[in-house]
Design brief:
alpha+beta; four-stranded antiparallel sheet; 10 helices
């Protein structure tokens, strides 16, 4: 018993990057507390909500400073979840007109955090940082004065060796990277929180609508639940994102929030069967690794298997 106690004392905490209360809205009716878990190339199966969308100490601050609350970010997220959960509960059966100004405030910040806290965003920020470092280092290598300084700083290497390395880097045969873990994760998490403020600002300037499927086709969600979609009439072949597209947040198999730059009807908008495959497509292809649903669907798995993690999705939208 003593050994078991010691194990639990030092076991790492599991941080949920998708709130459990949110995922429970998508639980399997016949198996409460579980969702169907979809992964690329793996047959979907029921999985406990407590065991999905989580990672070890994902939000813990790694900086070794006794004055810093290592669980500060986790506490912020938990507070946001507590205030937003009853608001989302109202929208499962009610409408946006049921919400107070305080409700909109709490919900806006919850959605902003939900859209920025996930691993997909952290990996995107990491990729951007690596790209910036490589760009700046290339610019330095192209500058003969700066390269001469580099030669002086590394007397252990011959000028011929450094020149060979410079040529390889400029040709793309060598690339910079930075080591993950430790305070690198603190830096990336800080950038995620800064991205939250951008999302909140965008959400505050968008028109909000509550949409509802009126067919047997349902909404689902993923480990990257805030969905970017092209607006109607978006130019063919041009990219889109949170700044110039529509944004969708499924909140249950029946309902989702839609944020657009144009005013729509104030009442709950009905979504017919012919529109649902397109919405399901964007939800699935927006994921990083996992998709969650209350139903088992070969179509969901087929769409997911047609994508590759970490790559922009260019598959044809159903019905397009």
């Amino acid at each position: 018993m003593e050994a078991l106690f010691d194990y639990h004392q030092f076991a790492m905490a599991r941080d949920h990057f998708i709130p459990q209360f949110y995922l429970r809205n998508f639980e399997i009716p016949a198996k409460p507390g579980h969702v169907y878990l979809y992964r690329r190339g793996v047959h979907p199966k029921p999985k406990s909500i407590r065991q999905v969308a989580q990672d070890e100490d994902y939000y813990d601050i790694k900086l070794d400073d006794p004055e810093v609350d290592k669980e500060g970010v986790d506490k912020l997220l938990q507070m946001s979840e507590r205030t937003a959960a009853p608001v989302i509960g109202k929208l499962l059966t009610g409408s946006l007109t049921d919400l107070s100004d305080a409700d909109f405030f709490h919900l806006t910040w919850f959605i902003g955090l939900l859209g920025s806290r996930v691993p997909a965003v952290r990996e995107t920020i990491a990729s951007i940082q690596v790209g910036i470092q490589n760009r700046d280092f290339k610019n330095m290598l192209r500058d003969e004065t700066e390269f001469a300084k580099l030669v002086q700083q590394h007397p252990e290497m011959t000028s011929e060796e450094l020149e060979k390395s410079r040529t390889a880097f400029l040709n793309g045969d060598l690339k910079l990277d930075f080591k993950r873990g430790g305070q690198t994760e603190d830096f990336l998490m800080s950038a995620q929180l800064q991205f939250t403020e951008i999302l909140v600002d965008i959400l505050q300037r968008r028109h909000w609508s509550l949409i509802e499927t009126i067919s047997s086709l349902s909404f689902l969600t993923s480990d990257n639940p805030l969905i970017n979609m092209p607006s109607p009439g978006h130019p063919q072949g041009e990219t889109w994102g949170v700044a110039n597209g529509d944004t969708l947040l499924p909140i249950s198999p029946k309902r989702a929030l839609l944020f657009v730059s144009r005013r729509l009807r104030d009442r709950v908008i009905e979504i017919h069967r012919d529109k649902m495959p397109e919405l399901q497509f964007y939800i699935i292809t927006n994921c990083k690794s996992e998709v969650y649903s209350h139903v088992l669907s070969k179509d969901f798995q087929r769409v997911l298997d047609s994508t590759e993690e970490g790559k922009a999705q260019t598959a044809t939208v159903p019905g397009a």
